[in-house]
Automatic annotation (TrEMBL):
Lineage: Bacteria, Thermotogati, Thermotogota, Thermotogae, Thermotogales
GO BP term, pick one: translation
Protein keywords: Ribonucleoprotein, Ribosomal protein
Subunit structure of this chain's protein: Part of the 50S ribosomal subunit.
Name under which the protein is recorded: Large ribosomal subunit protein uL30
One Pfam family matching this protein: Ribosomal_L30
Start and end residues of each Large ribosomal subunit protein uL30-like ferredoxin-like fold domain: 5-54
Organism: Pseudothermotoga hypogea
Family matches, as Gene3D superfamilies: Ribosomal protein L30, ferredoxin-like fold domain (3.30.1390.20)
Ribonucleoprotein as UniProt keyword: yes
Gene Ontology molecular-function annotations: structural constituent of ribosome
Name of the gene: rpmD
Amino acid sequence: MAKIIVELVKSPIGYKYDQRATLKALGLKKLHDRVVKPKTPQILGMIEKVRHLVKVEDVSEEE
């Protein structure tokens, strides 16, 4: 399955509670935290909700 890297690049301070909760559910706590997630519709929907706070990169699977 394809994977993506999500990095928190902007502080969620001052944004709505549901956006902060979405970041917490993604596993992003501090600025510049990076997590690797599977590229599923659920994760992509969460990223779309906080797209102004995060940076997303595709991971190439070279095995």
